[in-house]
Write a structure and sequence with these properties.
The chain has 209 residues and is α/β, with parallel strands linked by helices. The protein has one domain: Maf protein, CATH 3.90.950. It is built from 5 helices and 6 strands. It has a 6-stranded mixed beta sheet with strand order 2-1-3-4-5-6. Strand 1, helix 1 and strand 2 form a beta-alpha-beta unit.
Length: 209
Amino acid sequence: MKRRLDGRLVIATHNAGKLAEMRELLDQYGVRAVSAGELGLPEPEETGTTFLANSQLKAIAAAKGANCPALADDSGLCVDALGGEPGVYSARWASPTRDFAIARAKVEEELRGVGAKAPFTAHFICILTLAFPDGEIQSFEGRVDGELVFPPRGSLVFGYDPIFLPENLAKTFGEMTLEEKQAIPPDGSPALSHRARAFQAFARARLGA
């Protein structure tokens, strides 16, 4: 029988935006979350070539480093006209300073460079991995499809959100509040964001949702 979580959980990230989103999701379940950054844990090198591999290596490193369960996210933007790029390298497109204004501009530049025409179809994907210090591990996937818009829209800036318009919606992620983007529908229907959708699967399996 898989263990449920009822105590402290390490969020294996040094990214303030991801941490805020995960805490927003976990709060409703009474799970106390602390980040790897707050614990002073080092960031492992993301050597995987898939979202799953990177998510797992981050979760395992944090679980061992903190000696308690850890939840890691690996996520990114996959643009069809760019062959799925930036994909697992989404953060690297933001330069060493993690300036996502640079990354968003690079996506637009690359699309123009290959002669792509709107709509620029794309999807966000998120893999969440839960790891325990004793080696137990489980992963969960969330995906949301949509298209890219230029210029960016929205002042609620996090990553690629201001250029991503989810299908069948009129607002980009950058125009949504955190609560809107992360809301978990009580009827069990899919949430809006890729991270919230992965979290829905995690919550059903580990939080008794």
